[in-house]
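Give me the fold.
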Amino acid sequence: MNKPLVLHFGGFAASGGSAIRDLLKEFEEIFVFPSEFRLLKEKNGLLDLETSIFSSRSPDNIDLAIRDFKKLNEHLGRITTKFSRKGFDYDLYTDYKYTFLINEFIQKITDYKYKMFTHNYDFRKSNLKSQFDRYMARIIGYSFLEEESYMAYPSFKEFNIYSKELLYSIFNSSIKKYKVKPKIIALHNSINHFRIETILKSSNYFDEFKMLIIDRDPRDIFIDFPYQRYLPSNLDLLDKSKYFVKFFLSMRDELEEIKKLDNTLFIRFEDLIVNYEFTKNKIIKFLNIDKKKVDLNKRKFFHNKSFKNLRLYKSLDKKYLKAIEYIEKNLEDYLY
């Protein structure tokens, strides 16, 4: 099985992750997975499944974790069409292999299946479905409520082997579909890179793993923050900036230690624009790729056009002044 180096890249919400994505696309030795790769980091994803199996050891929790993992991946795999529920299209990006590979993985880690009913199954039903099933059980018998459940106690070594097989099979299916032979597969927002413990835990799923993390001046992040996400919308700007500062620092309280990891390169969004060639060469050296192997037809990032995204706070209405001053006072070390 082909096992290219895996590169995780991302930022901290509105800090420049998409700029890295667009830059990486032009290098012939890098294959950028077509969308965010959320199998590991997502709630009920691979890391949560590992925790449920090896930290809990409860058969009920393990069964529920596998069910949640399967349901999540139904959504991730689903191809969005005009008439379907929204999905993340992973089946499309892997030539319809993703869902098959997920089910194969679940089969490998499962010792056997058995019939069971538990209140947890009932809690997950709609009110109407719950009442209907209870009435039917009184008529037919309570075996009507039983569902197929999972018993899974793989060893940690087995779980890790099967997880690696799953991930690299997904990558190779995508590589085969797009008919490329990359040295590196780049995954946008594939792990939560805010805690060293999580980084180390995530990196165990790959033979070779590197991280490219980007950050940005907090004043511009505050202005460019995703609309109505993470911050309350019914506050004045000064109060909102106070919540922003706490949010900003909470995501970066281990950042200085993370920067010291050998497999990590930290860059500033501003440097990618102002010092483009220097920063680009740092990335090339870090990834050990050939700077001459580029496909200009795939070029998406044009640093000259991105100057408009710098120092947004300087052209704002005066109503932002106190909020920006509060950010400058409390996030001085992060200003550019």
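The chain has 15 helices and seven strands.
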